[in-house]
Amino acid sequence: MSDLAQWLQLLRRYADAMAGRWHIPLLANDFLAWLGAGIFLLALITIVSLVAIYLERKVSGYIQSRLGPVRAGPIGIFQTILDALKLLQKEDIVPAAADWRLHLLGPVIFMTATLMMFAVIPWDRGINVARWLDLEIGLLYLVAVSGIGVIGIVAGGWGSNNKWSLLGALRGAAQLISYEIPFLLAALCVVLLAGTLSLSDIVERQQAFVTEWYIWRPILWLAVAIFLIAGVAEVNRVPFDIPEAESELVAGFHTEYTGMKFALYFLGEYGHLYVLGLLFSVLFLGGWASPLGGSNLPFEGFIWLNLKAWAFVLAAMWIRWTLPRLRVDQLMELAWKLLIPAGFVALLVVSVALIGT
Amino acid sequence: MTWLGLTPAQWVEYAAFLAAAGASLITALGVLLAPRVLHAAIWLLFCLLSIAALYALLGAHVVFAIQVLVYAGAIAVMIVFAVLLLERGTGRGILAGSQHLFAGLVSAGALTAVLVPALAYTLWKHARAAAVSGPDTGPISGQAAAIGRLFLTRHLLAFELISVALLVAMIGALVLARPDRRRQEPPETADEAEGQADVSQWHPPLNVGAEEDAP
Fold it and tell me: If interface means Cβ-Cβ distance under 8 Å, which residues of chain A face chain B?
């Protein structure tokens, strides 16, 4: 058992003892534990988004030979916090002709789908928010839930009653449906190799030593490439950001959003990128496993998992500021004519390699 | 510690069941009564999700995940996508509501006639099994592997038949979507010939800018 697990268990035992002293039924204590997990996730997504947006601006500045934010605080580190405070106080504008129910529902569904994906992420050995889900179908659940987010894009784009928003919503729906298939196929390759759908078990298969990481297996390299491309497309980032394509559609599906609703779309998007990084680390980079061998540092697994996930996030930013945007038809061709057949080839390669083992 | 013969955990389970069941009924009514097709589609999404919650409460985790993945994640999204393309693409609204009351009543009645005996039979079978060997409360594990094995052994025929049915549906959709070349009559004027050439090079409305690439 890891340090984080021991620490949580201690906290839990303390909470149970307190509950006994204050005559709180243990069930309410369970509920409090779930509430705590929820608050932890919300705080995590907020902090991750703030850091990711700051990094995005710094990385883009670096790549384009400029400074990025420098004014607020040393090297501009307070910039995104101030931006978040600004977003909080902005007026919430709903266009007069909008379908206000769908306009409200869009960001809510989008954010909820992202939040739900975190439920099965194994933060350390034996630690995730929903253990009963992770035990056997963690990956299936994660992929299933990520598919709901597109409804948030469509509801927001349609509910805004604006042609740019509607075009963005249509493009978003088409893109996300298409790229879910290669994404799933790439993840399936890992499932075949590991023989389990549980994310914790997939990490356990790789955690013995650095050389056990699945990214070193040549039969999985095609799957890694497909996962990277389809993953970046799943979070609507350049070169696949046609649902918001600012030079064509103003801001796409979130053109008519201000204030907190806009912030929810933003949080959902960066949260999704981060959870993809976590998933990539779990599937290919050994999850919480340390490449240096075990040590006694507290929260070691959590820190390693985060380092790997942030490496993925930084790579996604690097891609974003290096490549130009694809056209809609090129995007569809890439998915259906290249990535999906390649996904089947990758699946076939892994299956053939597994014969006789 | 029990209250009315149930432990707190059981009370929570009942409350969760009532919430999920109530949500599925209310959202199903929403599907029926929504005046706009897109609203009905969003209601349907929530209906499917609350049914998924019922599966989760029953401990059928794989069915729960498949329900979310296939029905909520794929089918509801496809319905919404089709509505978007049709309503805004053609400029005509899609009628929502019941235009086929009689046919609807007949099919609903037939479905009920099948479902109620099936439910009654299952309940009776479980009650008898429980009377013989006690209620089945053991942990459910390895569902995904068990279901996969059943698909490839006992239910192989049904599994393959469904695959064939899906293939037929896909080919049918392709045939319907393809511009019909056989029925085209030879063009009489130059204008008409140009018009027909445009039809054969038809792209979906999303394909902005694709024309420049066309040979």
Answer: 25-27, 101-102, 105, 132-133, 135-137, 140-141, 143-148, 150-151, 154-155, 158, 166, 169-171, 173-174, 176-177, 180, 197, 248, 327-329
